[in-house]
Amino acid sequence: MGERLSSVRCSKLSHETKASLYLGIDCGGSKSQLVVVNKDCQAVAECRGEGCNYSVLGLENTVQRIVSLLQMLITSSNFDVSDIAGAFLGIAGIRSSSADSRQLAAALQTALSIDFVVENDTHIAWYAGTAGQSGIVIISGTGSNGYAIDDLGQRHQIGGWGWRLGDEGSGYAIGLAALRHATLAYEGRAPATSLSQALCSFYSITSVDELVGRIDSYQQIAAFAKVVHQQALSHDGVAQVIIQQAAQDLFVLVRWLVEHGDFSGENIPVVGYGGCFSHMTLLRHELVGCLKRYNETLTFFLPDCSAAFAAAKLALVKFCQ
After folding, report:
1. b (16+ CB within 10 A) / e for 81-114
2. How many C-alpha atoms does 32 have within 13 Å on its Cβ side?
3. CATH number of the domain bearing residue 312
């Protein structure tokens, strides 16, 4: 399966919460998180591990990874699979209400004997910020996409095509733009930038020309985005332009959702979710500026709970008798 199970961290489950339990799973491009809640919606166990992108792993490997993570959680807690009344999974690389989502739900139910609902990870991120009310979520982590449920209850989704076809404004896009500029600067075809030296430090090389062969995954490129943001904070002009472009690309996703949805309220929530929003103040600032210039009713904020916990709440709502 390839996952490093030693990277999983779990918390113990207390005995008094062992009745009906509900499982929420958030599978993103770089990390996964499982949360178990009881019937009072209290989190009683948690597990973190490697990412689980369906479009990268495929059906069989996705099921194996989720089963392994759940087994690790159970081993570190004191409940059994039979204690879980139902599960809600949000996963990157799969379209909500698609044949793939139904196939994955059926495969997980067979493997674990648990009823599963499977949605794209944008749905649980949306719920984490809106608690089920109409609104928009924009995700910028390893990848990017956008999702909304409007005032009429209609769903709208944009992006989510993966690093080969899309992921505009994501950590991957930011990292890739920086790497490309550094190679051009090395050849004298672009302005010099502190990103070149930062890149060498990040990849433990002495010169940009040693970069070929050192890049082995899109997740590694996405991880460099944090360095780009640090250089932007240090007033590197190239890094600042890259962050500004990422914010503009994310704004385009939000604008599409606004224009295709039916939103009539005086305040339209825009939830920012993912590692880029959590760690990049400049990205948030630039996106807020774009939103305000476009429509004053758009209110950007970060959610106050994790998408995995939101998924567990959705499981509770769905399966609690």
Report:
1. eebbbbbbbbbbbbebeeebbeebbebbeeebeb
2. 30
3. 3.30.420.40
E strand spans, 217-311: 268-273, 298-301
Please say whether the beta carbons of 92 and 307 come within 8 A.
Answer: no
What does the pLDDT look like over 247-303, one tens digit per residue?
999 999 999 999 999 998 789 999 999 999 999 999 999 999 999 999 999 999 999
Structure tokens at 148: 């909304």
Residue 135 falls within a domain, yes or no?
Answer: no
Rounded to 5°, the CA angle 121-125-126 comes to: 115
Strands 144-149 and 135-140 turn out to be antiparallel
What is the span of the domain harbouring residue 115?
Answer: 5-127+306-319
Tokens representing 55? Answer: 């479009």
Strand partners, 144: 140
pLDDT band at 321 (very low <50, low <70, confident <90, very high): low
Tell me how far the alpha carbon of residue 29 is from its chain's centroid.
Answer: 7
Q: Is residue 144 part of a domain?
A: no
Whether 20 maps to a domain, the answer reads yes
Interval 121-141: pLDDT, tens: 999 999 999 999 999 999 999
The sign of the CA dihedral 100, 318, 257, 260 is positive
* Strand residues in the chain grouped as ranges (E): 9-10, 21-27, 31-37, 43-50, 84-91, 116-120, 135-140, 144-149, 155-159, 268-273, 298-301
CA distance 37 to 311: 10
Q: Distance (Å, rounded) from C-alpha 286 to C-alpha 248?
A: 8
> pTM of the entire structure?
0.85
Overall number of domains in the chain: 1
For residues 242 and 272, give the distance between their C-alpha atoms in angstroms, rounded to a whole number: 19
89 occurs within a structural domain? yes
| Strand, coil or helix: 21 | strand
Instruction: Identify which of 8, 66, 12, 14 has the alpha carbon closest to the alpha carbon of residue 40.
Output: 14
**Coil, strand or helix at 278:** helix
Separation between Cα atoms, residue 34 and residue 108, nearest integer Å: 15
